[in-house]
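Tutorial handout. Part one gives the primary structure; part two gives the three-dimensional structure as tokens.
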Amino acid sequence: MQNAMSPNVKIIHDLYEASARGDFGAAMANWSPQIIWNVAEGHPYANGNPYIGIEAIGSELLAKMASHMPDVVTEVSEMLDADDKVVVLGRYKGPVKSTNKTIDAQMVHIWTIEDGKIVKFQQHVDTQQLNQVLKAD
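Part two.
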């Protein structure tokens, strides 16, 4: 029998579910307006770290990533409850539109939640593979 999700894990679970069905409004419903977002060191867009606020994250990062990798999915294998943090383990998988390569990279997301709002995101990913699939030959 599965244990009930903590409120923080439920927030993050719902975020991934909404994102998977393309409902980005629902995915961002619990983001703090001043959310701090960091991609992994070595990520092609790490020079923008930290991205602060919903508008900056959307226009300066997520829109760019979506244009290159619209069909890449995040497959979640596990969510770990760590008090004010939720650690998500999984993989990025799928075709990269801009290069016709395929990614299958291990990832870890760390979400920080305060008073029911997501205030911080930290990504860890196989940046060597990410850079290879985003780079045209």
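Part three, for discussion. Residues 7-134 form a domain with the Nuclear Transport Factor 2; Chain: A, fold (CATH 3.10.450.50). The first strand starts at residue 31 and ends at 38.
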